[in-house]
Amino acid sequence: MKIIEIENLSKTFSTTFGKKTVTALNDVNLSVEQGTIFGLLGQNGAGKTTLIKVLLGIVYPTSGSCKMFGEDFTNLHLKKRIGFLPENHKFPNYMTGKEVMTFFGKLSGLENLYLTKRIDEMLELVQMTKWSKSKIKTYSKGMMQRLGLAQAMLNNPDLLFLDEPTDGVDPIGRKEIRNVLLALKEEGKTIFLNSHLLSEVELITDRVAVLHKGKIIREGNVHELTSKKEEYKIVVDADLAYLLDGAIKEKYALQKISSSTYLIHVDESRPMNDFVDHLRGKGVSIKEMAQEKNSLEDVFISLVQAEEKRL
Ligand SMILES: Nc1ncnc2c1ncn2[C@@H]1O[C@H](COP(=O)(O)OP(=O)(O)OP(=O)(O)O)[C@@H](O)[C@H]1O
Ligand SMILES: [Mg+2]
Fold first, then answer.
1. Is 0.70 surpassed by the pTM of this model?
2. Could you read off the pLDDT of 23-41 as tens digits, one per residue?
3. 288 and 142, same domain (yes or no)
């Protein structure tokens, strides 16, 4: 089931008393399946935050439409099913973590008895229980992000919007946040996150879209986007450079990486099976075989560069 369905969404901001306009979103079409983690990637100023703000009803779109939970996204009652962690969020310095949670819980209209229990559960989930009575001014960035995440989860939302959830957080803290997000996904929650930390996104998202100057330039499953369909790495117990005939080496564009590791190219005209049969025929034992991958960062950079050239 699709939780978010965006159709032809555009947003143009007018600045300097309408003299200048900025197109932050340009005909965006996107959908997000229930129970998945969706990553929206893009450079600074690409329009990521604007898209989240439009979906939350904080910013009005110039044109286009969107459905959430199958309904028009402007329906107010849907807000109860949504959680939000804004980018660069700030909580009052003089409050404790628990006071912040109570404040936001009450703003959400949560009933006292439920709220007390929920606050404890959420602080536990993000491993902030022992800091709950400390003032915000003593918190590190990682702790602020974790508290922000707990706050976003207070109303037990089905759909969570997270704008740069791991920004400024150290590697251990990022891993903890990743684990929380994966646990939420296990519970069936849908997570929409904005990030430019691509190695992070690669580890947890099911699908990603790349936004460039307000336009979606690519969308897809992370595995599909990063796999190099025709390149395989193969680890064997023999020196293929000597063992194989020149014609086979040439056909599969065999490339030696180390004494036992090779790169081969396969496609319809040079099937993997034939290569394996050939190795077996020579008595070679195959220890490992895997499709080569690009990092999401490589994919992102080449997409953006190609788009820049096109424009
Ligand atoms: N309220 C506003 N008024 C005018 N222009 C705006 C407004 N909000 C955003 N913009 C412009 O819209 C564009 C997209 O901004 P947005 O904040 O959505 O980008 P972003 O992808 O979230 O960037 P970042 O990675 O830096 O957070 C930018 O050019 C920005 O200057
Ligand atoms: Mg932003």
1. yes
2. 999 999 999 999 999 999 9
3. no
